[in-house]
Amino acid sequence: xxxKYKKKLLKQYLFFAILWSVLGLLNLKYSDGNNWFLYGYFIxxxxxxxxxxxxxxxxxxxxxxxxxxxxxxxxKKINLSEVIWIKKFAGEYILKTEKDxxxxxxxxxxxxxxxxxxxxxxxxxxxxxxxxxxxxx
Length: 137
Description:
Elements: E1 2-3, H1 7-30, H2 38-57, E2 61-63, E3 67-70, E4 77-79, E5 85-89, E6 92-96, E7 101-105, H3 111-122
Helix pairs in contact: 1-2
């Protein structure tokens, strides 16, 4: 299962990429002389374009039957069978194992994907005091 980013977040990245590009072009046209600050606009535009295309192509989380992994170059991976505690705090899920901990930011997750993630986390059969989903059952 792939947990995707919110479309609103992706649109914001694209908007800022276009905004920085336009500001860079306007600054190039109306500036006097060669100022190295001009290239900062284009660097920001490229960074936002990269973020947009990376997050559009790659999901936030990849979940299979045994594990959950953040899809970053050095993203954490946790086995679902080892999760002993789930804490919900300030728009984040904190999954804890004996050795490790993973924070999942729910505010960047698409609503449909968040529903799927909640269903998956409910099925982990944790004690009621170790999960925020105990009241839903």
